[in-house]
Write a structure and sequence with these properties.
heterodimer, A: 98 residues, mainly beta, Ubiquitin-like (UB roll), 4-stranded antiparallel sheet, 3-stranded mixed sheet, 29% strand, globular, B: 570 residues, 5-stranded mixed sheet, 3-stranded antiparallel sheet, 13 strands, 8% strand
């Protein structure tokens, strides 16, 4: 779903649809919201790599979260118990010191 | 950005608009940003000549900056002083622009920047103090001519001799006490200005209570009284007992020459006339004591009124939406023992220190140093724990997981869940629906928790908010001393939604501690945040401050490498 996050530049969405049926289609909504369709057994690393490639962000500067839990590269929609329409949120690295 | 002057005006306008909601000054991020902005502009504008109007606004910025980041922007203050000195030198303000308004703000402004007349009058005093003369040596103190005739050569039977402050005569305690009691017959004092909040219980008139013990204390051993923190002596001639006039003892022995002589006519015809001599070269120094006394009273009542107004204003803000107020002074008093330094954090053993030092050397290795809680800590992450680096989210999140993990694994600890650093931004951005599955996924029994800790990331600053189910309050811990109204609002909404209305939030208060451990630099806030969370998670008092930061950073490296928290519960 499109979100109104225009005001926060350091957070982007990649809405990744995990479809229960084996699917190989990848839907890209726009540059910031990316819709994928993948098999439930496919490691999410594939999506992460696709995201990195598409946005040009290097590994280590973005964090992938499902409902607040970090996504490991070898997690699959099955292992994370994801439902159809669930989101993977992409967060940009935060630093702070002042 | 336009010219420096323009920018200053802009930021000043911004700030003075915010002054209407003074509460805003407690919100940390805005404060920090505004101060930093003002600092930068000031430095830029250091060499510019500004109009009188701009200077007024500069003062706004300066006050705002000082108000809450006292000490943090020490440089800023120096800059301001330098700047003001320069302006005064280059561009003496025309006297016709002098304002007649007597608002507190203007008084300060005038006092800080612009007082040519007073300076002229103070010259003798200043010269004298430069030469190292004590007050009794000053012959040419200009008593305002309207009231007194200066007759330095006249000898008068009602002389008043100022005691020499130094050297102090060595006396026994009983002697001093006796003299103090005696001296009260002739020296009537106004106590040092008090905390206006206490003023309301203090209804008696100062001069009518010479027996009052608190007034006794305001006289020091030499018999000096203090008016408005400046040493002064008020002498009421009518009250001087006859036998003391000629019989000066120890402390009050007449110096070789009388310093201030009271004209005969004045003292005899008007027994209430009083004379004051101020040892400091303050601008109050030449006013008649009556006036200064009145001024002290007026100032006190004025600040008290202002304070009351301010409190009422805060109340009116807070009481909207039925949110109870936090200005519970008794409670704040209790909370003053937040820091307990008795249980000091132990230094890291030297064997561990070697491991830590090794880990803090940057490597380009792709393999993570630690991998736990689905978080990979690489060298580039752990290196942020080397002082003076800023902490990144990986370290804070890993530490949060350590805290949650410890609470889960030991039954005698408070039940704590610490969300990761992305909780708050998600809550802000997409509201409750953005994070409603988080507790389910983390298997948190929301209603059974003691504390839920939410790290807050404010673009360049880490701080902490706590949902405290024990004390029924929302807490905001900021090592820069900011306040978190927005955070409180968000968390209030979150708890309301998450508990599905089961928790009665009308009894919950917002709380920001006044004396939590504070950072005095620009890079340790992440460490403060993590350590504060750790202390809260075991229900303990804070046992650290800025001086422990290096040690805590080392401990954190060790704890992250080990994948568990080391420190014993207090």
């Amino acid at each position: 779903m499109p979100s109104s996050d225009a005001g926060s530049p350091n957070q982007h969405h990649a809405d990744i649809k995990a479809n229960p049926q084996p699917q190989t289609h990848i839907n890209i909504k726009d540059s910031q919201e990316v819709f994928f369709k993948i098999r439930r057994e496919t490691p999410l690393k594939k999506l992460m790599d696709a995201y990195h490639e598409r946005t040009g962000r290097t590994t280590g500067t973005v964090r992938f979260l499902v409902d607040g839990e970090r996504v490991k590269p070898d997690d699959t929609p099955n292992s994370l118990d994801m439902e159809d329409g669930d989101q993977i949120e992409v967060m940009i690295e935060q630093v702070g010191g002042q | 950005m336009g010219s420096p002057t323009e920018t200053i005006m802009k930021s000043a306008r911004f700030l003075s608009r915010k002054r209407a909601h003074r509460d805003v000054f407690r919100s940390g991020d805005l404060a920090v940003h505004s101060c930093a902005m003002a600092q930068g502009r000031l430095m830029e504008a250091g060499s510019q000549q500004l109009s009188w109007y701009s200077r007024l606004h500069l003062w706004h910025i300066y006050r705002a900056a000082r108000g809450f980041t006292a000490g943090l922007f020490g440089k800023f203050e120096n800059w301001y002083r330098f700047f003001v000195a320069q302006i005064r030198e280059q561009n003496p303000p025309p006297s016709k622009r002098r304002r007649t308004s007597t608002s507190n703000h203007d008084q300060i402004l005038r006092g800080a920047i612009h007082r040519p007349e007073e300076q002229k009058n103070n010259e003798p005093l200043e010269r004298a103090s430069k030469q190292g003369l004590s007050s009794v040596d000053i012959q040419h103190v200009a008593v305002p001519a309207a009231n007194h005739v200066i007759t330095p050569t006249t000898t008068i039977d009602t002389k008043c001799y100022l005691p020499k402050p130094k050297p102090r005569p060595k006396k026994s305690l009983s002697q001093i006490l006796l003299e103090r009691r005696q001296s009260q017959h002739r020296i009537f004092s106004t106590p040092p200005p008090r905390d206006p909040t206490r003023e309301r219980n203090d209804s008696h008139h100062p001069s009518s209570t010479s027996k009052n013990s608190s007034h006794e204390e305001s006289l020091n051993a030499n018999g000096f009284a203090y008016i408005n923190n400046r040493p002064s002596i008020l002498i009421d001639n009518s009250k001087i007992p006859r036998h003391l006039e000629t019989n000066g003892d120890g402390d009050l022995t007449a110096p070789s020459q009388p310093s201030v002589s009271v004209p005969n006519a004045a003292t005899q015809s008007n027994p209430e006339k009083v004379v004051s001599t101020h040892t400091s070269s303050s601008n109050l120094g030449l006013e008649s004591p009556r006036k200064s006394k009145a001024q002290v009273g007026a100032n006190n009542s004025k600040t008290f009124e202002e304070l009351q107004e301010y409190i009422e204003f805060l109340h009116s803000i807070r009481s909207k939406d039925g949110i109870p107020q936090t200005l519970d002074y008794a409670k704040e008093e209790r909370d003053k023992i937040i820091i307990r330094k008795s249980s000091k954090i132990p230094t890291l053993p030297s064997s561990d220190l070697e491991i830590v030092k090794k880990a803090l050397v940057q490597t380009s290795s792709k393999t993570p140093l630690v991998s736990k809680f689905s978080i990979d800590i690489h060298s580039r992450d752990i290196i942020t724990l080397a002082s003076p680096n800023w902490l990144n989210d990986e370290v804070v999140n890993f530490y949060a997981s350590l805290i949650t993990d410890r609470s889960k694994s030991s039954s005698d600890m408070p039940k704590v869940h610490m969300f990761n650093t992305f909780f708050y931004p998600t809550l802000r951005r997409s509201g409750y629906k953005g994070i409603k599955k988080w507790t389910k996924r983390a298997k948190v029994d929301f209603m059974d928790m003691d504390f839920i800790i939410v790290p807050v990331h404010l673009s360049v600053h880490w701080c902490l908010s706590v949902i405290n189910f024990r004390d029924k309050r929302f807490e905001y811990w900021d090592s820069l001393g900011g306040g978190g109204n927005e955070v409180f609002e968000s968390l209030r909404d979150y708890v309301k939604e998450e508990s599905a209305g089961e928790i009665d939030l009308s009894q919950w208060t917002d709380y920001y501690p006044k004396n939590n451990p504070k950072q005095n630099n620009g890079y340790d806030c992440g460490v403060f945040t993590c350590k504060t969370a750790e202390c809260i998670s075991r229900g303990a008092l804070m046992n650290f401050d800025q001086s422990d930061m290096m040690n805590i950073r080392n401990w954190m490296v060790k704890e992250i490498l080990d994948g568990r928290l080391q420190q014993a519960s207090a």
